[in-house]
Amino acid sequence: MEDTLTEPELLGKIAAGDRIAFSTLYQLHLSEIYHYLYLFTKSTDAAEEIVQDVFVKIWEKRENLIHIKAFKPYLYKCAKNMLLDEFRRNAVKSKVYNALKPDTEESHGKTDDRIIYNEYHKIAEMAIDLLPEKRKAIFLMRTREELSLDEIAERLGISKSVVKKQLYAGIGFVRQYLHNHDAYFMLIAINLYLNTL
């Protein structure tokens, strides 16, 4: 029984790819980490999304778990990093929205920023066009149509995990493409497309 294992034994099983052990770990820590994240986000949806991302990241890097002496500090560090990423995305998103507002007396000085933004928007468009067709379709359904992962999975007749895997691969490619093209404002361009991720 997974619930009778010590923490190192449980982590060892997960590191070896045991999904049942991972489910046990998830259930053990879900409520606590959700409440921790909710304290900062004040949003049920945001807290739930970050929790899912945290555990997806832990599963993706499960081989590292055998080196973890105590899981809880590791979990909270992962959650904190994801939370900071979310705050950064929201800060950039706010700048993007402000830059795209119609001209007012306050926004006349932002013309240069808009020009730069538009240039990197074009670079992001080129990156998206280079994605394989299926990955591109998933990427656009999520970012332009603002469909949920479940809705995309249903529309394409594939599993949610496949959608998530393809979406993350697409995001990684776009980010790397922008980085390779020295996009100083690449986070602005990314957030045009990833504002719900």
UniProtKB/TrEMBL annotation:
GO term, biological process aspect, one: DNA-templated transcription initiation
Annotated RNA polymerase sigma factor 70 region 4 type domain residues: 125-169
RNA polymerase sigma-70 region domain segment(s): 25-91
Superkingdom of source: Bacteria
GO molecular function: DNA binding; sigma factor activity
Keyword vocabulary terms for this entry: Sigma factor, Transcription, Transcription regulation
InterPro entries, per the entry: RNA_pol_sigma-70-like, RNA_pol_sigma-70_dom, RNA_pol_sigma70_bacteroid, RNA_pol_sigma70_r2, RNA_pol_sigma70_r4_t2, RNA_pol_sigma_r2, RNA_pol_sigma_r3/r4-like, WH-like_DNA-bd_sf
Matches recorded under NCBIfam families: Sig70_bacteroi1, sigma70-ECF
Protein family membership: Belongs to the sigma-70 factor family. ECF subfamily.
Name of the protein: RNA polymerase sigma-70 factor
